[in-house]
Amino acid sequence: MNNLDDKIKSALEDNINITESDKNQVWKKIETGLYSNKNSNFKRIHFKRRSFINLVATAAVIAILFVGSKTKVGHAIVTQIKDLFVPEKQITQEIEGEKEKTNMNLHQSLKSNYIIYVDEERYEFIDGEEVDKIIMKDKPDNIPEVSMDIQQLIDRSPEDVIKDLELQIQGKYEIVHGPETIREPINGFTIRALSGQKWDSLVIKIYVLSNEQQGSFIITQHYFLEAAEGHGVRFDEMVKEFKIVK
Fold it and tell me: What is the pTM of this model?
């Protein structure tokens, strides 16, 4: 029995969540099976721009055939794959001291290899050439920009990127917090800056994380001081749902 199987069995016995690394290993095994010519039960399947829904369905079927849906290991694999890619999920978040249930919809960026869940009731996801944007719907003209940008730099480390961003921000904003290393809502770095202390003072909040190769993802939030407990919290909840998909 290999190391991954041991970890899955141990997780089931000890009631411990399987890690993202374990999920990636499972996914690689499924992909290997899909492209293998040794197994006569499968034909070669080409994934070009297949939707995540079809991809999940295929992966679940392969996992069932490989390890058996009635086994605990097989059930755990299928469940976690489905949980990672469900097209819609509901979260509970605290907005200005009140608990609120929010429906989130899956969005994918094929060019940058990530998925994120977006509150489509309030925001629109725009798939750009170099930068993807999540913008506020029906924004009143009398308030500053409310948006979140997602950009990938394929050849720069998070450590280098956050240093450059710190220098850029210090010359433009009155108050700067960070940079600092964080584990929530992502594992990486963050820096936050304000243009002042008025209700409409501009706020910029940046997260930098590894793209799990040689580069980085930069997630940049724009809102205003009075919106910190509203849009700021909602953006962070969406950042929690950001996942890199290879």
Answer: 0.68
Give 10-residue mean pLDDT values along the chain (246 residues): 55 53 60 49 43 58 58 61 73 86 88 90 92 94 95 95 94 92 95 96 97 94 96 95 86
Cis-peptide, bond into residue 144, ω within 30° of zero: no
List of domains in the chain: 3-85 (no CATH), 120-244 (3.40.1000)
